[in-house]
Amino acid sequence: MTSVRRVRIASLMCAAVVVSGVTGCVKSEGAVGEPGSSASAFPADAFAGLTAQQIDRKARDATSGAASLRIAGTFTTNAKSIEFDLAVTRAGTCKGSFNDGTGILQVRKTSETAVYIQAEEAFWRAALASRSKEFSPVQRDTVAERLGGHWVKADRAMARTLGGGLCNLDKLMKPLLDGGTGNPVRVADSSVDGKPAAVLTERGKGGTSILNVAKEGKPYVLTWESVGGATSGKLTMGEYEKPVVVTPPPASEIVTPPKPRPGS
Asked: Per-residue pLDDT averaged across 194-198, rounded?
């Protein structure tokens, strides 16, 4: 994993949740899996005889071919922390939550045209602050109070932004999985949530990347971590190939955003 890829991952996580010029995230509902200390014994090495580059390639190929997965993590870049937890399918449906300090945002995408979001008042106030030409200060307060804590069905532009970024598995995984021009090194094996894992490290100008790859079953990426650089953080991936059931919120919980009106 190169330093360039490290920056692109953080950038994607910020850009993918942009709504009216503001990003939003919410704390993870629970870690997908946490790395443990190095284990003393593992089954026969599934990667015996392979170079670190070959293991890296197998991991990227297996992970990019998954039909569904859950990805969670925290990144800090430019003194800004981003937290997220997302379950997504290759069919384009997803559900998840995000927090970058501007407010809490949750998203459910049930189809290409049906994307629902729920955000706190603080998020809407921040989002509407960039639309001063459409909403007066009084109107922004009124809209934020009305939408805060309720589900909103995104309009076409917002659905395209959220659904096309966060709920597109190929786009989500591309910054993490593309490349292959680096020089990873295999170090001592470890475990993630009790699962044996091969550990690859790669040093670059932007810090060090640490990759945990499943040794049992398909060689999926279990965790990816960036340390020692301007952008630091960790992604944890799991629940590969599990169904992701996404249902729309009850109609009684969905509100319609008021349109801007002249004056205040």
From this structure: 94
Q: Compute the distance between CA of residue 82 and CA of residue 100 in angstroms, rounded to an integer.
A: 4
CA dist 66 and 165 (Å) reads: 17
Look up the pTM and report it: 0.77
Looking at the chain, list the stretches that DSSP marks H as alpha helix, in order from N- to C-terminal side. Answer: 3-15, 52-64, 121-129, 137-147, 156-165, 169-177
Residue-wise pLDDT for 32-83, tens only, equals 444 444 444 445 678 989 999 999 999 988 998 999 999 999 988 877 888 9
Each residue's pLDDT tens digit, 150-182:
999 988 777 777 667 778 888 877 766 665 447
| Residue 44, SS3 per DSSP | coil
The answer for residues whose C-beta is within 8 angstroms of residue 207's C-beta and 6 or more apart is: 3, 6, 226, 227, 228, 229, 230, 231, 232
Question: Per residue, what are the HEC states of 74-100?
Answer: EEEECCEEEEEEEEEECCCCEEEEEEC
Rg of the chain over all Cα atoms, to the nearest angstrom: 20
